[in-house]
Design brief:
The complex is a heterodimer of chains A (about 400) and B (about 270). Chain A is built from 15 helices and 14 strands. By secondary structure, chain A is an alpha/beta fold. Classes of the chains: A alpha/beta (about 400), B alpha/beta (about 270). The structure holds pyridoxal-5'-phosphate. The site of pyridoxal-5'-phosphate (PLP) has 21 residues of chain A, from helix 5, helix 10 and helix 14.
Chain lengths: ~400, ~270
C-alpha cells in the first residue's frame, strides 16, 4: 500500500486543500520546505537534539500500578507526554515547525490555541529561535485557561483574544488564517494539530510520531509484549495520531480515540464529531464536521478547551470509516471523575483533555484479562485546569 | 459560458467602461431586503451582481463582511433562501448573478443538486472563496452541465503555473484579488496592480475583474482604467450596516452605488 496522504493531500476521501487562492502558493512552498527538511540529515539531527536536550525526550512510560489494581483488570501504562517541557505533547510539533520556519527564512510565527498548550509551546519555541510570535485564542478559552495566557505573555508572545462565534478554538483558527492570508510573506502559521490544508495533517503527524515510536519500544520492554489496547483523546487528533501511528500496522492492537461528549447528545452540547457530525469542509480540509442541515458549522461544548472543536483531522476520518480506530465519547462529568482518580491513585494531575482518555479506560479495563496491557497517551498535565476544576466544583481558591 | 455574463462585459466594453460589480451579502439585514437592494443596484448601473452566501466561518473575510454574514444568518438566511431571492429577481431582471460562497454550504446541499437548482433559479456563475483549481474539478463538471460559469480567483501570490492552470476551468472571467489579505475597505490601491492584471489577462485569456479593498469612486476609476470589471464589496456592505433595516436603506445604497458605477467610465 502507498503511504497516505496522496500527493494532493488526501487520506481516501478526506483532506485536500480548501483555502483561498492567496494561500496556495505558500502551502506549496511549505510542502517543499518540509519535504526537503525531513530528508535532510542536518535538520533531523538538530530536531532530535532539541527533543532530547530541550524538550526532555524520550518521555518515560509509567506503569500505573494502583490504577490497574483499582480497575481490577488489565495493566495500564501511561505514556508521559505531561513530562515534556511546557507540559504537553504540543511542544514536539511546535519545535519542529519553528525550526522549519527558521529554515524558510520566516521572521514571525502565529498560532491558534484552545487549551493554551499549543500557544505556550509555540511561544516557547519562538523564544528559543528568536522569532516574533502572536497567538490567537477565543475569549472563552482565555477565561478558562487564564494561567496559560499569562505564560504566553511571559514568553514574549502577543496574545490576541477572539470574541467571534463560539469564542473557542474554531474562532481562533479563523482569525489565525486571516492573519496568515494577510502576512504570508513574512509569517509561518504553526498549526497545532493534524488539521487544516495539506501538508499540515501529515506534517504535524510526523512531528508527533516520536510519541508512538518511543512507546512501542518501551511497552515491549516493560510489558514484554504489545498492548491489547491503545487509547488517546482526540481534539484535532495530534496526540492520538502521534501514538497510533506506530501501532496501526499491528492489527491485533485495538486503537480507540476518545472525543468530548460534553453535557449531552444535542447539537451544540458536545464535540463528538463521529457520532454527531457529517463529512464537510472546514479550515481547509474535508473531514467530519459538526454542522446543521444548511452546512453552517455548529457550536460545540466541552469542559476541556482542547477538545472543544467541531472538526477532526482527516486521517482520523479515514481511520473511522475503515474501522482501524474506534471512536467513543466521554462526558464532562466522567472526565472530571477520571481527573480526580488519576491524581489520587497515581499522583499525576492530568489535563482535562487527557482525562477523557483515562475515563474510557476506567470503563473498559475490567473487560481485559489481568495480563493484558493498555497503553494510554497521557497527553498533558493538568496544572492549567486546576483553577477551572475548582470553580466548577465550587471551591474558592 | 453564461450568456448574461458575456453580454454584460461586452456591453460595458462597448461603452468604454469597466463592468461595475457590486457585492452584497444575501440576507443582510434580512432576506426580504436583499431583493430590493439588488434592484436598486441594477438601477444604479450594476452590470453584474455578486451575492454572498453567508457562512458561519468566513476565513477570507474581514470584519465588515463577517458582521454581515452574522446578521444574515441570525435573520435565518440559508442557501436555498438565497436561490429563492435569485428566482424572484429573475421575474423582472436579466442582471447576471454570481454567487460568492464558501464550499461547505454547497457541500451540505449536495453539489449536483445545487448546480441544477441554481441554474433553474437563474444563477449565472459561482465563485468559491475556498476552492482552488486543484479542488475545482468536481464543481466545474457539475456547473458545466447546467451552463453555470465557475469563477476562479487569482491572487498576487499565485505563481505563473497556477494562473495558467485556471485557464482550463475558468468561466467568462477570472477574479483578481487586488491584495494579499481578507476582504475589507482599504485606503490605497496597490502599486503594480495594472501590470499584474495585464499578465493575468494574457495567461488566462479571460476578462479580469478586480476586487478586495476597492471602496471609493476614485479607486474604482483608477482600476477601471485597466481592468475589465471592478468589484466593490465591503464599502457597500459597511453602508448597509450603518443604515440598517430602515426605509431609506434602498435609496441610500442606490445613490452610493451610482457614484461608484459612474466612476467605471474610462477617461
Ligand atoms: C494536553 C492536551 N491533550 C490533547 C489536546 C487535544 O489536541 P490533539 O487532539 O491535537 O492532541 C490538547 C489541546 O490543546 C492538549 O492540550
Amino acid at each position: 500500500m502507498k503511504p497516505l496522504p496522496d500527493d494532493r493531500g488526501y487520506f481516501g476521501p478526506y483532506g485536500g486543500r480548501f483555502v483561498p487562492e492567496t494561500l496556495m502558493a505558500p502551502l506549496e512552498e511549505l510542502e517543499r520546505a518540509w519535504q526537503s527538511a525531513r530528508r535532510d540529515r542536518t535538520f533531523r539531527r538538530e530536531l532530535d537534539t532539541l527533543l532530547a536536550t530541550y524538550c526532555g525526550r524520550p518521555t518515560p512510560l509509567s506503569f500505573a500500578a494502583r490504577l490497574s489494581d483499582n480497575l481490577g483488570g488489565a495493566r495500564v501504562f501511561l505514556k508521559r507526554e505531561d513530562l515534556c517541557h511546557t507540559g504537553a505533547h504540543k511542544i514536539n510539533n511546535a519545535v519542529g515547525q519553528c525550526l522549519l520556519a527558521r529554515r524558510m527564512g520566516k521572521v514571525r510565527v502565529i498560532a491558534e490555541t484552545g487549551a493554551g498548550q499549543h500557544g505556550v509551546a509555540t511561544a516557547t519555541a519562538a523564544a528559543l529561535f528568536g522569532l516574533r510570535c502572536r497567538v490567537y485564542m477565543g475569549t472563552e478559552d482565555e477565561r478558562r485557561q487564564a494561567l496559560n495566557v499569562y505564560r504566553m505573555k511571559l514568553l514574549g508572545a502577543e496574545v490576541v483574544g477572539v470574541d467571534a462565534g463560539t469564542k473557542t478554538l474554531k474562532d481562533a483558527i479563523n482569525e489565525a488564517l486571516r492573519d496568515w492570508v494577510t502576512n504570508v510573506a513574512t509569517t509561518h502559521y504553526v498549526l497545532g494539530s493534524v488539521l487544516g490544508p495539506h501538508p499540515y495533517p501529515a506534517m504535524v503527524r510526523d512531528f508527533q510520531s516520536v510519541i508512538g515510536a518511543e512507546a512501542l519500544l518501551q511497552v515491549r520492554r516493560q510489558h514484554g509484549s504489545l498492548p491489547r489496547l491503545v487509547v488517546a483523546c482526540v481534539g484535532g487528533g495530534s496526540n492520538a495520531a502521534g501514538i497510533f501511528g506506530a501501532f496501526v500496522p499491528y492489527k491485533q492492537v485495538e486503537l480507540v480515540g476518545v472525543e468530548a461528549g460534553g453535557r449531552g447528545t444535542g447539537l451544540g452540547d458536545h464535540a463528538a464529531r463521529f457520532s454527531g457530525g457529517a463529512p464537510g469542509v472546514l479550515h481547509g480540509t474535508r473531514t467530519y464536521v459538526l454542522q446543521d442541515q444548511n452546512g453552517q458549522v455548529a457550536g460545540t461544548h466541552s469542559v476541556s478547551a482542547g477538545l472543544d472543536y467541531p472538526a477532526v483531522g482527516p486521517e482520523h476520518a479515514l481511520w473511522h470509516d475503515n474501522r482501524r480506530v474506534g471512536y467513543v465519547r466521554v462526558s464532562d462529568d466522567e472526565a472530571l471523575d477520571a481527573f480526580h482518580l488519576l491524581a489520587e491513585l497515581e499522583g499525576i494531575v492530568p489535563a482535562l483533555e487527557t482525562a477523557h482518555a483515562l475515563a474510557f479506560v476506567t470503563h473498559v479495563a475490567r473487560r481485559y484479562a489481568k495480563g493484558d496491557g493498555i497503553l494510554v497517551n497521557l497527553s498533558g498535565r493538568g496544572d492549567k485546569d486546576v483553577n477551572e476544576v475548582a470553580r466548577l466544583e465550587g471551591v474558592r481558591l | 459560458m453564461s450568456r448574461r455574463i458575456e453580454l454584460a462585459f461586452a456591453r460595458a466594453a462597448k461603452a468604454k467602461r469597466a463592468a461595475f460589480i457590486p457585492y452584497i451579502t444575501a440576507g443582510d439585514p434580512n432576506p426580504t431586503a436583499t431583493l430590493g437592494l439588488c434592484r436598486a443596484l441594477e438601477r444604479a448601473g450594476a452590470d453584474l451582481i455578486e451575492l454572498g452566501v453567508p457562512f458561519s466561518d468566513p476565513i477570507a473575510d474581514g470584519p465588515t463582511n463577517q458582521r454581515a454574514a452574522e446578521r444574515a444568518l441570525a435573520a435565518g438566511t440559508t442557501l436555498s433562501g438565497v436561490l429563492q431571492i435569485v428566482r424572484e429577481l429573475r421575474y423582472t431582471s436579466e442582471l447576471p448573478v454570481v454567487l460568492f460562497t464558501y464550499f461547505n454550504p454547497v457541500h451540505a446541499y449536495g453539489l449536483a443538486r445545487f448546480a441544477v437548482d441554481a441554474a433553474a433559479a437563474g444563477v449565472d456563475g459561482v465563485l468559491f472563496t475556498d476552492v482552488p483549481v486543484e479542488e475545482a474539478r468536481g464543481p466545474y463538471e457539475a456547473f458545466r452541465r447546467v451552463g453555470i460559469d465557475l469563477v476562479l480567483l487569482v491572487a498576487p501570490t499565485s505563481t505563473r503555473p497556477r494562473v495558467k492552470a485556471t485557464k482550463k476551468l475558468a468561466g467568462g472571467f477570472v477574479y483578481f484579488v487586488s491584495r494579499t489579505g481578507v476582504t475589507g475597505a482599504r485606503e490605497r490601491v496597490e502599486e503594480g496592480l495594472e501590470a499584474q492584471v495585464r499578465a493575468v489577462r494574457k495567461l488566462t485569456g479571460r476578462r479580469v475583474a478586480v476586487g478586495f479593498g476597492i471602496s471609493t469612486p476614485e479607486q474604482v476609476n483608477r482600476v477601471a482604467g485597466f481592468a475589465d470589471g471592478v468589484v466593490v464589496g465591503s464599502a457597500i456592505v459597511g453602508r448597509i450596516a450603518e443604515i440598517g433595516d430602515r426605509v431609506n436603506l434602498v435609496g441610500e445604497i442606490e445613490a452610493f452605488a451610482r457614484s461608484l458605477a459612474m466612476a467605471t467610465r474610462r477617461r
